[in-house]
Amino acid sequence: MGNSSSPPDTSASQTWSQRFESALHPAIAQFNASIGFDITLLECDLTGSVAHAKMLAKVGILSDTECDQIVSGLETIRREYHEGKFNPGIDEEDVHFAVEHRLIELIGDGGKKLHTARSRNDQVGTDVRLYLRGQIEQIRQRIKDFQWAIFELAQQHVETLIPGYTHLQRAQPLSLAHHLLAYFEMTQRDWERLGDVLKRVNISPLGSGALAGTTFPIDRHYSAELLGFDDIYYNSLDGVSDRDFAIEFASAASIIMVHLSRLSEEIIFWASEEFRFVTLSDTCSTGSSIMPQKKNPDVPELVRGKTGRVFGHLQGLLVMMKGLPLAYNKDLQEDKEALFDTVATVSGCLEAMTILLQEGITFMPKRLNQAVDEDFSNATDVADYLANKGVPFREAYNLVGKVVKTSLAADKLLKDLTMAEWKELHPAFEEDIYAAIAPAQVVSARNSAGGTGFKQVRSALKRAESLLEA
Ligand code: ARG
């Protein structure tokens, strides 16, 4: 036990000042408590408290011995937690009280000094920021893993063709690598966006006190520096009230989910009998309990489905904040489950999609190359051909529209037209029209910057590789 003469009363009923005479109604205690979920913040809470204690020692509020005792008590709690021996119950209300009570149990009266010049309001703000900072770094790593998987798949499919769609109607053929690399670019923005969010997450509210600062001569820059924060909040009210960073994170997370959900949707229909562009491995798909022939794309379906709850958390946080007067209000306790679930969902979806790309999906090059050979997605190229021979584009466009119509009626594709038929349509057509409308040529010719031409795609791959290695 501690070093105090009489054992300290560390029960929750002793948490409040002498102003209180009776304990909380049990149902209200349950309703009020956050320990059931904010135990997730335990490590951050300990880290934050260690820095706070060291700062108190630096400015002379704690002696070095008192500080050492507190720090080693906090580290004991960390060890107990890792060993599964720290399991605070509902009577602790939240993780901050749970730690403080355990500290007092462990080191006695010395533990009662830790909360000097601090409030749970700046404490919880510090914890959430430390938590989010760590999680954002992990999610950014997961984005990089996802990008590697996209990159490696794209590398194998520069010259595999895939129909490109607008309005989900066949539009122009693409290099499959080009299609995949669109997701590389999208997630590159996600990675950058999270880096930007991090700048505002990594600001210290510690020392804002309950709302107004503190009478003690604290050094906020020192505790911020110990915790690796880039700066401090310069207004104590803002410091304890601000959850912009949480909303920004939920917003960046929602955009990541939009991207994963769109890829999911594409994979789902690519795997359908109607498309047959990909097959899914047994390791990443499931069967039906009744239809023995089924192989279901559960992974992308779940990712698409989970997108909704991440959007929900963003909405929840926005609504939670909009009517709050300054400064701390208990409403803010609701930020935690939203953030924890957002982190778990985004990380889980990124991981599952990365595995799906690495080993769960096989593109069918024969089927894909054949698909682009059976449609009118080379019609623009016929118009471009004529435009290159001096026919104004709009005129060429109208003429090719007519060709498509008559070909459809004759159940023919453009490549099936005879030279005589081409000539009849326009005297400018020559033998080289056949080469010009072959799918590989159609793709290769789109050599404008950022286009699907093979040369462009190869340099896009180089760009991707250098971003991955940076
Ligand atoms: N459990 C609280 C939360 O998560 C901690 C802060 C409590 N502050 C207060 N003034 N009641 O927000």
From TrEMBL:
One of its GO terms (biological process) is L-arginine biosynthetic process via ornithine. It catalyses: 2-(N(omega)-L-arginino)succinate = fumarate + L-arginine. GO terms for cellular component: cytosol. Residues 376-443 form the Argininosuccinate lyase C-terminal domain. One of its GO terms (molecular function) is argininosuccinate lyase activity. InterPro entries: Arg_succ_lyase_C (IPR029419), Argininosuccinate_lyase (IPR009049), Fumarase/histidase_N (IPR024083), Fumarate_lyase_CS (IPR020557), Fumarate_lyase_fam (IPR000362), Fumarate_lyase_N (IPR022761), L-Aspartase-like (IPR008948). It is an enzyme of class 4 (lyase). It comes from the Bacteria. Its EC number is 4.3.2.1. Residues 19-312 form the Fumarate lyase N-terminal domain. Pathway: Amino-acid biosynthesis; L-arginine biosynthesis; L-arginine from L-ornithine and carbamoyl phosphate: step 3/3. It is found in: Cytoplasm. Keywords: Amino-acid biosynthesis, Arginine biosynthesis, Cytoplasm, Lyase. Its main location: cytoplasm. Belongs to the lyase 1 family. Argininosuccinate lyase subfamily. PANTHER family: ARGININOSUCCINATE LYASE. This is Argininosuccinate lyase. It comes from Leptolyngbya foveolarum.
